[in-house]
Amino acid sequence: MDTQHIAIRPYRDSDWPRLCAIHDAARQNELALAGLPGAFLPLEIAAPREGLFGYALRVAELDGQTAGFAAFTAGELAWLYVDPALSRRGVGRALVEHALGEMGWPVSIEVLAGNTPALALYERCGFRRVETVSGRMPGNEDFAVTVHVLKLT
Fold first, then answer.
1. FRET label pair with 86: which of 5, 28, 56, 80, CA 20 to 30 Å apart?
2. Separation between Cα atoms, residue 8 and residue 56, nearest integer Å
3. H-helix or E-strand containing 94?
4. Distance between CA atoms of residues 59 and 80, nearest Å
5. Cβ-Cβ contacts under 8 Å for 37 (sequence gap 6 or more)
6. What span, in angstroms and rounded, lies between the C-alpha atoms of 3 and 111?
7. CA distance 34 to 112
8. Burial 115-149 (b: 16+ CB within 10 A, else e)
9. 3-class SS at 5?
10. Tens of pLDDT along the chain (153 residues)?
11. CB under 8 Å to 106, separation ≥6 — which residues?
12. Rounded to an integer, what distance in angstroms lies between the CA atom of residue 37 and that of residue 117?
């Protein structure tokens, strides 16, 4: 049986190019699922607009290769992206579980309507949908979005 090792560690400045590549590929997939492909902004633009570095930022390595990242506060898991080429290998779940170990309670997350893979991941981790809301996309307010709000209490 082939086993892979996932390690979670704090972000380092040298991670930036790889995080940009991961985010940009995964975000395009996420927005396509939500029917919003035109809303894409590369991480170089999205990070400062949405305050990425104001969050605790953790990086996942799969067998030594940077595979994903998560950003969170005490009560919100705000960013979670996994390299689409490395998906379905436990990286997302490892990031969620690690973040939960550092966060307070309750925890909330918003998932774009249509992003069924993310919904499934969070529900497997114990999150439950509590409401669906519509508004403007943070960081790209030209776009209207509908999100599912999930909570873990």
1. 56
2. 12
3. helix 91-102
4. 10
5. 28, 31
6. 30
7. 6
8. beebbebbeebebeeeeeeeeebebbeeeebebbe
9. coil
10. 345 799 999 999 999 999 999 999 999 999 999 999 999 999 999 999 999 999 999 999 999 999 999 999 999 999 999 999 999 999 999 999 999 999 988 999 999 999 999 999 999 999 999 999 999 988 888 899 999 999 997
11. 75, 151, 152, 153
12. 17
- Whether the CB-CB separation of 11 and 59 falls below 8 Å is answered with yes
* 3-class DSSP assignment, residue 4: coil
Contact 150, 111 (CB under 8 A): yes
Helix (H) or strand (E) holding 29: helix 16-33
Q: Compute CA distances 91 → 104, 105, 150, whole Å.
A: 22, 22, 20
Burial per residue of 12-27, b for 16 or more beta-carbon CB atoms within 10 angstroms, e otherwise:
eeebeebbeebbbebb
Distance CA 152, CA 78 (A): 14
Element (H, E) at 6: strand 6-10
- The answer to whether 110 touches 149, Cβ cutoff 8 Å, is yes
